């Protein structure tokens, strides 16, 4: 069989003394394309089009369109991107596996071979989102949390193990290994891959977590998609997206002493949000980018969802090779990697003027200063010394202005707790734990014994601004040895001064991989973190996604009863309302060493430059500058961080390293045997009454508003996440099905059961439906009766009446994690259209993927300007089978008094393939019909 050779680009390159096949991008110059002027990220996507150019999925016209990319052109063409592999985390991976199982069941029911449903590209699922911080502050916390994780999730893990045997290309990294993005960076990513025809090509991917972009720091093109898009990708569909603008960020200078990669990432997040990079590629270049270590690049790339970009890409150079070697990839592979990218003309960080970008942004790294972000959004950066004043200002600012609406008296309000409340206890350290430290366990424990006992241990007090959770967590920072070592060094200096963490603080350390534990142990820093209560609680995505676990019941009761604005500090990437903990309203992102510092201080309403953090064992004030490690101190420890033999050992033979995983039984067979009594895994209704014929596109008539929302409604607000409340529709459902409250687990762990997830959609305790303002939570008003009830109950009442639903929203609708259940739940509630002032990229795509119509108000128009109150009836006119991407439609508003108003809206079905998805009722029915037709 002859292989395709579009534009005569099939060629060879030399590596390791042999000749290897590839599709040459430089060869496109002979066809008249200025390949050297294209952004590096565009060129890597272009290679995929070249290699997969079969005249069907990818045409020569598509190749030519992307090869002729112009920096300032209008964007109307779609790119059919065939990715090399797919990564999943378990919160999104399990429902994706449920959908695949449901597709096999649907195929089996129509008499076809169920094995035609099979991933066509490698799929890796990393089980990392299920561990919760139920236990913290003790040496036993890790084992206790892991034990509870396996107990809670046994049924889910049995299902995952079924998937491992049922699908040939489906691999699993079991619990207790690390966070998906860090595992991807340290282990899964190869940089260059080879197909069955011995053709080499770039490592590219999509992942079912928005922070898949972390891999961009390694020069790998990839980003987060919803599970819905990922399923289509793994079943052979290209990932379609509009040809993007590429924003070039020219980095110059170097970070100053005392400034971390986290500070840089938060600064870039603020900067690029202002430049409105949503839906665009961002590419970093220039001397500042070239000088950044790979781990710093990964920290910046990880935050791409926070600045809104599709990617935050760093091109390939010597630093990427250095990282591959340091993390255990073979010398032969690294040599081939270098030879491939040099042959493609993709080697090296571009200088200014070498590449054409749609927009150029400048940043001098020397201008970056220590920062935090919050209290509700990651782009709201605060210069560190200003945090105290900023918090107090927000405390008394109106809610409408982003504040907390408290009075002046709340600035000094104190709430006394019972004397025993709070930790108070600090861990003693064994000789074994301290063996590799440059100090004996006895010395550390003596320091602990000599530290002053704060007054608050005897009579602990809570106030607005009290830190109740301090978590070193999240792939963003735990992947970066420089900030992790800085945290350890700061802890060491604090212990040596006799300091202790405020006893009301729940402190925890959740490394992104076991490699972190190895180097913290080898540098002798872990015992000091242990001494301050930062014991390892698990290897997974914990506090950053709401798996922070419970607070002391008396502390939580005091917070709720007194309506306190308590704080969390975390080294994460997300701090949306009710994400970290439902009753902690103020959440600040920061570097790991700052997390330790604020845990010591126990409050956020202070100036870290001028106010003391605490007093030492001699009663002297201790300031942040007294504890902060120097760059030299950090660099002295860095040699222990990247040891190839450690990576090779820890990323081998997961089975023998995880006996609990081995104990989990698995069912067998190609078609899953659904258990109708299960409260974790159920066959979803997406293929009920499945027909081989697509539906039609028609106007929406007589829709009632399910909710009217303001700006920045996130997927955390929409999608079920965090704890399940006992009195919620989902909680009542579990109780009715014999599940005790103690066994409710989280919404994330029950994403394989649509009965629970639909009940939890739009049920966030902090969501603000303006139809029931000022009340918060998942409530609406059933019309025309005007009866207030839960959104789920109202949706079911409307469904019985045959009334379609509509959602009205403001700007940036659907920001946050790429939770497919935010779209699935919207669909299952009966919502036919969402009309917003603007959409975040992934959620808009997911809505179309679930057959929900996204519509966008024209500039200056919205719920407020139209005076909407929820009593209206809506029609969407002009919608038909020949609808065109991004065409104008009419939204007709019929008010309570019978008057009507027609408003022009943009149909945000953005590409031709999305028209097909929408007509078929979503991407999954479309793909299933395609597969059955082919077979």
UniProtKB/TrEMBL annotation:
Organism annotation: Actomonas aquatica
Protein family: Belongs to the aconitase/IPM isomerase family.
Catalytic function, reaction form: citrate = D-threo-isocitrate
CDD domains: AcnA_IRP, AcnA_IRP_Swivel
The Aconitase A/isopropylmalate dehydratase small subunit swivel domain, residue ranges: 732-859
Name the UniProt record assigns to this protein: Aconitate hydratase A
Residue ranges constituting the Aconitase/3-isopropylmalate dehydratase large subunit alpha/beta/alpha domain according to the UniProt record: 69-602
Broad class of enzyme this protein falls into: lyase
One example GO MF annotation: aconitate hydratase activity
Cofactor dependence: [4Fe-4S] cluster
Entry keyword set: Iron, Iron-sulfur, Lyase, Metal-binding
Protein's UniProt keywords contain NAD: no
UniProt xrefs under InterPro entries: AcnA_IRP_Swivel, Acnase/IPM_dHydase_lsu_aba_1/3, Acoase/IPM_deHydtase_lsu_aba, Aconitase/3IPM_dehydase_swvl, Aconitase/IRP2, Aconitase_4Fe-4S_BS, Aconitase_4Fe-4S_dom, AconitaseA/IPMdHydase_ssu_swvl
Keyword Lyase: yes
Annotated metabolic or biological route of this protein: Carbohydrate metabolism; tricarboxylic acid cycle; isocitrate from oxaloacetate: step 2/2
Enzyme Commission code: 4.2.1.3
């Amino acid at each position: 069989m002859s292989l395709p050779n579009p534009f005569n680009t099939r060629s060879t390159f030399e590596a390791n003394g042999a000749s290897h096949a590839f599709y040459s991008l430089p060869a496109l110059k002979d066809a008249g394309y200025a390949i050297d002027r294209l952004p590096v990220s565009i060129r890597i996507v272009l290679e995929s089009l070249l290699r997969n150019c079969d005249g069907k999925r990818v045409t020569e016209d598509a190749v030519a369109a992307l090869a002729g990319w112009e920096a300032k052109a209008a964007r109307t063409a779609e790119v059919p991107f065939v990715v090399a592999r797919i990564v999943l985390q378990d919160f999104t991976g399990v429902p994706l596996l449920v959908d695949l199982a449901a597709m096999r069941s649907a195929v089996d029911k129509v008499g076809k071979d169920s094995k035609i449903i099979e991933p066509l590209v490698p799929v890796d699922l990393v089980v990392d989102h299920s561990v919760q911080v139920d236990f913290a502050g003790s040496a036993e916390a890790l084992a206790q949390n892991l034990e509870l994780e396996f107990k809670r999730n046994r049924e889910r893990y049995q299902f995952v193990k079924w998937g491992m045997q049922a699908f040939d290309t489906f691999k699993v990294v079991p619990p207790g290994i690390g966070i998906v993005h860090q595992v991807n960076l340290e282990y899964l990513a190869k940089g260059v891959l080879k197909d069955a025809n011995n053709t080499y090509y770039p490592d590219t991917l999509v992942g079912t977590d928005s922070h898949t972009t972390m891999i961009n720091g390694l020069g790998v093109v990839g980003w987060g998609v919803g599970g819905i898009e990922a399923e289509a990708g793994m079943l052979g569909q290209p990932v379609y997206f509009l040809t993007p603008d590429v924003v070039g960020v020219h980095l110059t200078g170097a970070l100053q002493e005392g400034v971390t990669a986290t500070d840089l990432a938060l600064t870039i997040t603020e900067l690029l949000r202002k430049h409105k990079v949503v839906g665009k590629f961002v590419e970093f270049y220039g001397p500042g980018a070239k000088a950044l270590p790979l781990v710093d690049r990964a920290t910046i790339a990880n935050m791409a969802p926070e600045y809104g970009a599709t990617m935050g890409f760093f091109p390939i150079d010597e630093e990427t090779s250095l990282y591959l070697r340091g993390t255990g990839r073979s010398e032969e592979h690294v040599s081939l990697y270098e030879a491939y990218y040099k042959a493609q003309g993709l080697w090296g960080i571009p200088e200014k003027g070498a590449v054409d970008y749609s927009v150029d942004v400048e940043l001098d790294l020397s201008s970056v200063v220590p920062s935090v972000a919050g209290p509700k959004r990651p782009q709201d950066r605060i210069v560190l010394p200003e945090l105290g004043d900023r918090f107090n200002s927000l405390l008394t600012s109106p809610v409408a202005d982003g504040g907390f609406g408290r009075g002046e008296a709340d600035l000094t309000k104190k709430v006394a707790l019972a004397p025993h409340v709070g930790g108070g206890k600090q861990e003693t350290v064994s000789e074994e734990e301290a063996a590799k430290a440059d100090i004996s366990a006895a010395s550390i424990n003596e320091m602990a014994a000599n530290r002053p006992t704060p007054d608050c241990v005897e009579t602990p007090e809570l106030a607005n601004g009290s830190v109740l959770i301090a978590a070193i967590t999240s792939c963003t920072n735990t992947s970066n040895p420089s900030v992790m070592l800085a945290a350890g060094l700061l802890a060491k200096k604090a212990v040596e001064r006799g300091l202790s963490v405020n006893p009301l603080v729940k402190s925890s350390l959740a490394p992104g991989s076991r490699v972190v534990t190895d180097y913290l142990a080898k540098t002798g820093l872990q015992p000091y973190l242990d001494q301050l209560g930062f014991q390892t609680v698990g290897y997974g995505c914990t506090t950053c996604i709401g798996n922070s676990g419970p607070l002391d019941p008396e502390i939580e009761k005091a917070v709720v009863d007194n309506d306190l604005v308590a704080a969390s500090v975390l080294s994460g990437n997300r701090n949306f309302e009710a994400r970290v903990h439902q009753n902690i309203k103020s959440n600040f992102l920061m570097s790991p060493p700052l997390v330790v510092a604020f845990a010591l201080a126990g409050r956020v309403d202070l100036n870290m430059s001028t106010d003391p953090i605490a007093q030492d064992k001699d009663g002297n004030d201790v300031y942040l500058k007294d504890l902060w490690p120097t760059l030299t101190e950090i660099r002295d420890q860095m040699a222990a961080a990247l040891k190839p033999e450690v990576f090779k050992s820890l990323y081998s033979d997961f089975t023998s390293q995880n006996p609990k995983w081995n104990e989990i039984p698995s069912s067998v067979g190609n078609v899953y045997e659904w258990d109708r009594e299960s409260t974790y895994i159920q066959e979803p209704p997406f293929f009920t009454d499945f027909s081989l014929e697509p539906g039609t596109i028609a106007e929406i008539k007589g829709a009632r508003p399910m909710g009217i929302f303001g700006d920045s409604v996130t997927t955390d607000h929409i999608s079920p996440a965090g704890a399940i409340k006992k009195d919620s529709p989902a909680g009542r459902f579990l109780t009715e099905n014999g599940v005790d409250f103690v066994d409710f687990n989280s919404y994330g762990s029950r994403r394989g059961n649509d009965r629970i997830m639909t009940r939890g959609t739009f049920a966030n305790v902090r969501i603000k439906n303006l139809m029931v303002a000022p009340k918060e939570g998942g409530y609406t008003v059933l019309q025309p009766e005007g009866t207030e009830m839960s959104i789920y109950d109202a949706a079911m009442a409307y469904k019985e009446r045959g009334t379609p639903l509509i959602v009205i929203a403001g700007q940036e609708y659907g920001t946050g994690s790429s939770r497919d259940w935010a779209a699935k739940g919207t669909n299952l509630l009966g919502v036919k259209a969402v009309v917003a002032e603007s959409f975040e990229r992934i959620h808009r795509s997911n809505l179309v993927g679930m057959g929900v119509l996204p519509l966008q108000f024209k500039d200056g128009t919205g719920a407020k300007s139209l005076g909407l109150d929820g009593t209206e009836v809506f029609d969407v006119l002009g919608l038909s089978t020949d609808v065109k991407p991004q065409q104008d439609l009419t939204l007709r508003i019929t008010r309570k008094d019978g008057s009507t108003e027609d408003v022009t809206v943009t149909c945000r079905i953005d590409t031709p393939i999305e028209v097909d998805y929408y007509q078929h009722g979503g991407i999954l029915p479309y793909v299933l019909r395609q597969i059955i037709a082919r077979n």
